């Protein structure tokens, strides 16, 4: 909580850019700083921000932070544990994702050793016809490597991650081997255009999907955009449970309860029409994805689920009001709005004409090339 910052913003004295600067610099305060000093520090920075731009505020705040503890105690283990973290931003319009890390000395030492090997000149170069991922690169590979250090470290992360995925030693996640699962359409594969979507919601250019499909550790589920039918399942395990989970990830894309942001990797398979304990069957058209909290919320007196004729998972509760959430077709225009005088602004509905009904949500399953 930043009370002084919130008050200044509410009064229009600082901008959202100022707020972001203040939040970041307050987060840098050492853990041993007491509450009173922390509040005074925030108030001082807010006072500076009221008369300066965001950049000048940041410079002044960094100086205040330095003066606050020039000779303070060395960071201890508890402080390092508090500050450690690895976060990623939302995927941008250019399909890139920014990551930010605060590594402990141990984590930094681990990745120093990995980068020394895999980020060396000539190693893991995607521009090479056959990138060197083990052993020593040839002199030609070293001489032809024009990547920056940052680019080499990025490519090393990809290579090390791929090695880990292909090792088979990462166990299982919700019944499937830990791997990359991508869904796309036959039309996009044939045209070499469009995108695929992973089980975590990352959008992949179709050329990346095709290249990744060459690695046997990944799953690729392909749908026909026109009919929505499953056309093929590449590199899936032959066990029914694995195949069903892959197709549900491709069909649903994530938790089917409307408004839930959990992606497919964090979901469980839910018996939609009838619970397993009550005699339900484990058929693909009777299953859907649900995150653990929403899965547990389906109980007598709470939420109930059903499968619509379109194979949409519908969530129903007793509260009056009906809403429908559907995943949009990426290549279809929005439906035309039908004019209805009874729904126009200013109209007061007659309760007798609109009796209450159960609240039903229909979450589109994403068939036919639909993406979250």
Give a quick summary of the entry:
With 372 residues, the protein is an alpha+beta fold. It has helices at residues 3-10, 16-27, 35-49, 54-68, 77-83, 105-118, 139-143, 149-167, 186-191, 206-212, 240-252, 292-297; strands at 85-88, 99-102, 172-173, 176-177, 181-185, 195-198, 203-205, 219-223, 230-234, 268-271, 287-290, 304-307, 313-320, 358-363.
How are the SSEs ordered, and which strands pair?
Layout: H1 3-10, H2 16-27, H3 35-49, H4 54-68, H5 77-83, E1 85-88, E2 99-102, H6 105-118, H7 139-143, H8 149-167, E3 172-173, E4 176-177, E5 181-185, H9 186-191, E6 195-198, E7 203-205, H10 206-212, E8 219-223, E9 230-234, H11 240-252, E10 268-271, E11 287-290, H12 292-297, E12 304-307, E13 313-320, E14 358-363
Parallel strand pairs: 5-8
Antiparallel strand pairs: 1-2, 3-4, 5-6, 6-7, 8-9, 10-11, 12-13, 13-14
Helix pairs in contact: 1-3, 2-4, 3-4
Description:
There is one protein chain. This protein is an alpha+beta fold. Among the domains are: 3-83, no CATH class; 103-167, no CATH class; 176-246, no CATH class. Helices cover 34% and strands 16% of the residues. The protein is built from 12 helices and 14 strands. A 5-stranded mixed sheet has the order 7-6-5-8-9. Strand 12 (304-307) and strand 13 form a beta hairpin. Helix 1 (3-10) runs parallel beside helix 3 (35-49), helix 2 runs parallel beside helix 4 (54-68) and helix 3 packs antiparallel against helix 4. The chain is globular. Residues 229-240, 320-345 and 351-372 have low confidence and may be disordered.
């Amino acid at each position: 909580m930043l009370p002084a910052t919130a008050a200044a913003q509410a009064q229009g004295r600082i901008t959202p850019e100022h707020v972001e600067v203040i939040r970041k610099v307050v987060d840098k305060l050492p853990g041993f700083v007491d509450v009173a000093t922390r509040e005074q520090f925030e108030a001082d920075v807010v006072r500076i921000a009221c008369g300066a731009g965001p950049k000048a505020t940041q410079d002044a705040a960094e100086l205040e932070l330095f003066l606050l503890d020039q000779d303070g105690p060395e960071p201890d283990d508890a402080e390092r544990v508090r500050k450690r973290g690895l976060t990623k931003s939302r995927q941008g319009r250019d399909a890139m994702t920014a990551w930010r890390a605060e590594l402990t000395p141990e984590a930094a030492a681990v990745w120093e050793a990995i980068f020394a090997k895999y980020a060396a000149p000539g190693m893991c170069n995607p521009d090479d016809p056959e990138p060197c991922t083990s052993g020593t690169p040839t002199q030609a590979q070293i001489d032809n490597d024009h990547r920056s250090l940052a680019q080499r470290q990025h490519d090393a992360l990809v290579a090390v991650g791929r090695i880990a995925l292909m090792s088979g030693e990462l166990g299982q996640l919700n019944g499937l081997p830990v791997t990359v699962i991508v869904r796309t359409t036959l039309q996009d594969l044939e045209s070499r255009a469009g995108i695929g979507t992973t089980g975590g919601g990352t959008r992949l250019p179709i050329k990346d999907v095709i290249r990744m499909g060459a690695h046997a550790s990944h799953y690729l589920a392909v749908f026909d955009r026109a009919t929505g039918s499953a056309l093929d399942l590449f590199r899936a395990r032959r066990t029914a449970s694995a195949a069903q989970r892959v197709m549900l990830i491709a069909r649903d894309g994530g938790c089917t309860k409307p408004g839930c942001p959990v992606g497919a990797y964090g979901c469980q398979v839910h018996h939609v029409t009838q619970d397993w304990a009550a005699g339900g069957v484990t058929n693909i058209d009777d299953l859907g994805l649900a995150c653990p909290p929403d899965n547990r919320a389906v109980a007598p007196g709470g939420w109930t689920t059903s499968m619509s004729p379109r194979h949409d998972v519908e969530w129903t509760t007793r509260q009056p009001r009906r809403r429908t959430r559907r995943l949009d077709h990426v290549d279809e225009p929005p439906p035309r709005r039908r004019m209805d005088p009874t729904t126009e602004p200013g109209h007061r509905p007659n309760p007798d004409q609109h009796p209450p009904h159960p609240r039903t949500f229909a979450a589109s399953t994403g068939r036919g090339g639909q993406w979250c």
